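Protocol step 4 of 5: obtain the predicted structure for the target chain.
Materials: sequence only (see below). No template structures provided, no constraints applied. The aim of this step is simply to have a reference model before the mutagenesis design in step 5. Sequence pasted as it appears in the construct record:
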Amino acid sequence: MSDEHVHGYSSEKDRHLKRLRRIEGQVRGLQRMVEEDKYCIDILTQVSAATKALQSFSLELLDEHLSHCVVEAAQRGGPEADEKVREASDAIARLVRS
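Step 4 output (C-alpha cells):
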C-alpha cells in the first residue's frame, strides 16, 4: 500500500487519536490502582470500562473500513474485492471472539 492511500478513518483521525489517548489514560489508571493496592472489584470495574471503550472504538473503525475500503474495492471488483471482504470477515471474527 502506498503512503498516498486514504484510509476510511483518515477524516476522523484526530478524533480517533483523542479517544485512544483517553483509553490509554484509563489503562494507566488501572496500573495506578494496582500500584496503590485498590480493591479488586474496583479494578475490575475499570477494566470493564476500558474494554468497552476499546470495543466501541473497534466497531467504529470496522464500520469506517466497511463503508470506505471494502465498498471501494467491491466497486472495482476482482481479487482485491474478495481480499477486502475476507479481511473484514476475519476482523469481525476476531472481534466476536474477544
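Step 4 remarks: The chain has a mean pLDDT of 91. The chain has three helices and no strands.
Proceed to step 5.
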